[in-house]
Structure formats: structure tokens, C-alpha cells
Amino acid sequence: MPLKKTFKEFSDETTALVNKQNLAFFEMAKEEYDKLKAIEPLVKAIKKKYPVESNKVCNIFSKYESFIGFVITFGCFPDDYHPDLQWNTRFERFVQENWRNNLLKECGALKARIKDELLDKLCNAVLLLRE
């Protein structure tokens, strides 16, 4: 039984599919990066106002930003991911479970200790990251 497609046709289709997935993945990461950049001024203002107290929030934000930068730069996850999940599911789930939730938790903890309108704004902005 002859092959219906040549190797080149199959290879071209596979490459197109991978490129389409990589582009979608890049767009998801870029959207997440844009959201982070939107709240960065709040994080910086809080760091300036409460340098010691805001340390955990700033560290999580910085690592979150680095992770998204890695994904945008290299178009893939770092090596410590579950290969059985779809790329878009992994991205969304990992970002939600490890970055957004941790950032929200630490912002809430800081807000509970320090009453400040700036912290209210940051908590609300982090909540919007989840949408």
C-alpha cells in the first residue's frame, strides 16, 4: 500500500502545526507578561514604601516575571514540567497554581498586616491576573 503523503509533505504539515502551537504559546506568555508589566509600578511602589515587609511579594513577582521571560525567550517551559500534559494546559495550570495564587496569597498576608490603599490596589490587580 503506497503512502498517501511524501515525507516532505508530512514534514511540512508537522512543522506548520508546531509553528502554530509555538505562536499560540508565545502569545499566551506575552499576554501574561503584559499583565505583569501593568502591575509592576504597584509592586515597585510597595517595595519602596515597605522594603522589608514586601520582600516575599517582590521575590514572587520577580521570579514570576523571570519565568514568563524564559517562556517568551525560549518558546518552551524550563525542564521541570510534566510532559504528559498539553503545552497550553501546562502553561495555564502552572501559572495559576504557582505564580498567581502565591502572589495573591502573599499580597493578602501583607495587606492583613499593613493597612494601605496601595496594597488594596495591588491585591485587586493580582486578582485581575487570574481572569
The helix/strand class is mainly alpha
Largest sheet: none
Helical percent range?
A: over 70%
Order of helices and strands: HHHH
Low-confidence stretches are: none
Report the portion of residues in β strands: under 5%
How many domains make up the 3D coordinates? 1
Q: Estimate the global geometry from the Cα principal axes.
A: elongated
**What does the average pLDDT come to?**
79
Give the N-to-C terminal Cα separation. Answer: 51 Å
Total strands:
0
- By DSSP (H or I, 4+ residues per run), the number of helices equals 4
Radius of gyration: 19 Å
Kindly describe this structure.
- The chain is mostly helical and 131 residues long.
- It has one domain (26-129).
- The chain has four helices and no strands.
- Helix 3 (87-113) packs antiparallel against helix 4.
- The N and C termini lie far apart (51 Å).
- The model has no long low-confidence stretch (mean pLDDT 79).
Provide keyphrases for this structure.
about 130 residues; about 0% strand; mainly alpha
Summed up:
This protein has 4 helices and no strands. It is mainly α.
Task: Please describe the topology of this protein.
Layout: H1 7-49, H2 55-74, H3 87-113, H4 117-129
Helix pairs in contact: 1-2, 1-4, 2-3, 3-4
